[in-house]
Amino acid sequence: MSRAQVLETADQAVAGIEDGSTILVGGFGLAGMPFDLIDALIRQGAKDLVIVSNNAGNADVGLAALLAAGQVRKVICSFPRQSDSWVFDRLYREGKIELDVVPQGNLAERMRAAGAGIGAFFCPTAVGTPLAAGKETREIDGRTYVLEYPIKGDYAFIAAYRADTIGNLVYRKTARNFGPVMATAATTTIAQVSEVVPVGSLDPEAVVTPSIYVDRIVVTEARQYTVQGAR
Amino acid sequence: MDELAAVIGHDIPAGSYVNLGIGQPTKIGDHLPAGADGRPAVILHTENGMLGMGPAATGDEIDPDLTNAGKVPVTELPGAAYFHHADSFAMMRGGHLDVCVLGAYQVSARGDLANWHTGKPDDIPAVGGAMDLAIGAKDVYVMMALFTRKGEAKLVPECTYPLTGVGCVSRVYTDYAVFGIEPDGVRVLATYGISLAGLRQRVNVKLLG
Q1: In the prediction, which pLDDT does A227 show?
Q2: pLDDT tens per residue, range A83-101
Q3: In sequence order, what are the residues at sequence separation of 6 or more whose Cβ sits closer than 8 angstroms to the Cβ of residue A182?
Q4: How far is CA A168 from CA A148, A212, B12, B160, in A?
Q5: What is the model's pLDDT at position B36?
Q6: Residue A123 lies in a domain
């Protein structure tokens, strides 16, 4: 893949996304949520989507807005039910959306595996619980493990802090969360950033996502939003 | 529960790396041991990618990019480090965390934990990081009310709620007593306003004195 394209608008960044795509969406709650890419996807209109993200939308913005627009067939996530997940809750109770609940560490590691070319891995999480029901297990050195398979995306939407013009990324605080893992696990990775700087101006020791994983970049305005539980 | 948070905070050894989950256990953060320099003597891990988490943020400190596992704005302490989600959960699953404290619907006499799903058909399941923490931390402490609103003990012979982890809990802190899950059974380590005989009447698990 050639070097990342720096695009003018979020609409250009999400152009060509097909119906039925699997999209990895960064963010933990609203921190690191790629709002502008999601809003552009709502305008773009792709439907029947499978969304992989930690949560299933908060309040009426970001992922919740995409769900409300009826574009999502299935959500693969660790924690859908929150005090402000009313959009998902309604669609789920009306039978209008599928849910696959995955332990959070498995969600991250399954994407890491996809990005690293690992065919599957044995993991101790969920042994003896309903989330391991029907899955292959193996005893290794006296401990039981469950076989878990990769989760690969057609696209990844991530929000990073700063990019250089070839696509190296740095993040900000806990907004990093799933971004670096998702960037490796999708065919096409699209990053919204607060700023693009000239190549050579990011400290190579501090680059978190190397450019090889990033395909499209768009600069977006920082967004104000209310944080749950803020006081 | 504030008093219980203080009890648990006091029991966490200085120098530990600790995860306080979401909800009630996060109150323990206000009761952790302090070092000679007045700074916390334990380092808090939050699943969303940080070691060295500080207290809740207020006023101008609030930064939407810096939250805890409950999505509440927090602060960073000197020595903090950020990392991505796969690394954060490798810290759990790799056995690097010393202690985690979780809430629970039920704990069994063998240390099985049920805390993620009531199993009711109309309940939306949500597991988050609970299963990874349960099998990953060296010591898993549970913080919960001992009885339901109906008066049923939540320390049970076998969990009836869907399990989070098997044989993973080492200690159960409740409003009536602290229990140690030990190889030979459940030991009562402390009681609050109830006798051992009184506990044995209300809890259907063999209790070692």
Answers
A1: 53
A2: 899 999 999 999 999 999 9
A3: A24, A25, A26, A52, A111, A153, A156, A157, A158, A189
A4: 30, 8, 41, 49
A5: 81
A6: no
The CA distance from B34 to B36, in Å, is: 7
Global confidence as pTM: 0.95
Q: Is A46 within the bounds of a domain?
A: yes
* ipTM of predicted assembly, 2 dp: 0.95
Residues of B in contact with A101 (CB under 8 A): 125-127
Using a CB–CB cutoff of 8 Å, tell me whether B67 touches chain A: yes
Domain of A36? 5-118+150-219
Which of B3, B47, B61, B152 is flagged as catalytic?
B47
- Euclidean distance between the first and the last CA atom of chain A, given in angstroms as a whole number: 46
- For chains A and B, CB pairs below 8 A equal 160
| A25 lies in some domain | yes
CATH for A45: 3.40.1080.10
Within the 91-130 window of chain B, which residues sit less than 8 Å (CB to CB) from chain A?
92-93, 112, 117, 122, 124-130
Is B3 a residue of the active site?
no
Mutation site, B50, B51, B71, interface A, largest A CB count within 10 A: B71
CB neighbours of A140 closer than 8 A, spacing ≥ 6?
A122
Give the residue from chain B lying closest to A113, CA to CA.
Answer: B86
Residues composing chain B: 209
Tally of domains within chain A: 1
Range B2-208 classified under CATH 3.40.190.10: no
Q: Chain B, 167-186: which have a CB under 8 Å from a chain A CB?
A: none
Residues of B in contact with A181 (CB under 8 A): 84-86
Q: What share of chain B is helix, strand, coil (3-state, %, to 5)?
A: 20, 30, 50
Q: In chain B, where are the structural domains located?
A: 2-208
pLDDT in tens, B36-84: 887 789 999 999 999 999 999 999 999 999 999 999 999 999 999 999 9
A225 lies in some domain: no
Residues in chain A: 231
A128: which chain B residues are within 8 Å (Cβ-Cβ)?
Answer: 112, 163, 165-166
